[in-house]
């Protein structure tokens, strides 16, 4: 399956499934390819060999092994740049990035802006180019990353920042967690017809073996409870679950994150 980038007919974006539920996103123009978060080198190498392509760069969002495990093998016989968060000190990263940095990828005719989005980890970054967002494990469809090093306050602020991106922004999440997230979203916000419609669509995609991603920011703003801490239905459900009405958006977010951890 190939997904063309919006408004950029020459750029193809393809997910390579890895492990149980990871996607390694590949961006291809002609015979040049850039990969995002290659946790496993094997599906990348077989894709390159099958299509006769050159790997020209690697983008890394955070240090977890299921996002970085392929760096060593993929760069063993290639002299290519590996871009990742400077603060994470990841083995194999050749260009450390911080908020506001730009990654120029002339082979794709694209430049990516770097957004620091801590929370899932303390040093997580996202890559943004026009309508394309690679948020790593910060944002999932109908969900968000767990707190594995960062704080709820950081993750909430990071998600609020991503939420402000244009609705047309395509969200290339790195895990196929959508159905499980939607199940939780039903508990966390019982009244949401748009979410119910997306759930039905995703069930049908998964039963056909198709990814539910990318999503869009417009959809996530409508269906993702972690972006909807001001929704009356979310506040009511959190109040019922915790026995206490959340005093702020952050308190609501923190309660949602803790609830999902045990869901
Ligand atoms: Zn992770």
UniProtKB/TrEMBL annotation:
UniProt pathway: Secondary metabolite metabolism; methylglyoxal degradation; (R)-lactate from methylglyoxal: step 2/2
Cofactor info, note text: Binds 2 Zn(2+) ions per subunit.
Signal peptide: none
Needed co-factor(s): Zn(2+)
Substrates-to-products reaction catalysed: an S-(2-hydroxyacyl)glutathione + H2O = a 2-hydroxy carboxylate + glutathione + H(+)
InterPro entries named among the record's database cross-references: Clx_II_MBL (IPR035680), Glyoxalase_II_hydrolase (IPR050110), HAGH_C (IPR032282), Hydroxyacylglutathione_Hdrlase (IPR017782), Metallo-B-lactamas (IPR001279), RibonucZ/Hydroxyglut_hydro (IPR036866)
Binding site for Zn(2+) 1: 62, 64, 120, 137
SUPFAM superfamilies: Metallo-hydrolase/oxidoreductase (SSF56281)
Record-listed Zn(2+) 2 binding positions: 66-67, 137, 175
Example of a GO biological process term: methylglyoxal catabolic process to D-lactate via S-lactoyl-glutathione
Any Pfam family matching the protein: HAGH_C
Residue ranges of every copy of the Metallo-beta-lactamase domain listed in the record: 21-175
Keyword tags: Hydrolase, Metal-binding, Zinc
GO molecular function, one term: hydroxyacylglutathione hydrolase activity
EC numbers: 3.1.2.6
Family: Belongs to the metallo-beta-lactamase superfamily. Glyoxalase II family.
Protein purpose: Thiolesterase that catalyzes the hydrolysis of S-D-lactoyl-glutathione to form glutathione and D-lactic acid.
Subunit relationships: Monomer.
UniProt name for this protein: Hydroxyacylglutathione hydrolase
Organism: Pseudazoarcus pumilus
